[in-house]
Write a structure and sequence with these properties.
Strand content: under 5%
Structural class: mainly alpha
Radius of gyration: 20 Å
Distance between the termini: 21 Å
Low-confidence stretches: none
Order of helices and strands: HH
Helix content: 55-70%
Number of helices: 2
């Protein structure tokens, strides 16, 4: 195995996801659209909960894929030489 990153305190380790301006704009558009739908509070809350869960899963998957790609590229450079 290659280099090991020693995280001294995992209780305080986190990755902050920064939202782009486009993400904020589309979230506002979605919010405006949802307000116009004839949903009761329970259904509205459930829909928002499911959308938040969906976005979090997408973010986690994208992060893991990017991390994996970075690791594979790092191994490629270590085994095959510099590009």
């Amino acid at each position: 195995m290659g280099d090991i990153i020693d995280f001294p305190n995992l209780d305080n380790a986190f990755i902050e996801i920064e939202r782009t301006e486009a993400f904020i704009q589309t979230a506002n558009e979605l919010s405006t659209f949802l307000k116009a739908l004839p949903l009761n509070n329970v259904d509205n809350d459930k829909l928002v909960e499911l959308m938040v869960k969906h976005v979090k899963e997408a973010e986690q998957g994208a992060f893991l894929q990017g991390f994996s790609m970075g690791h594979e590229f790092s191994e490629y450079q270590g085994n095959e030489g510099d590009l």
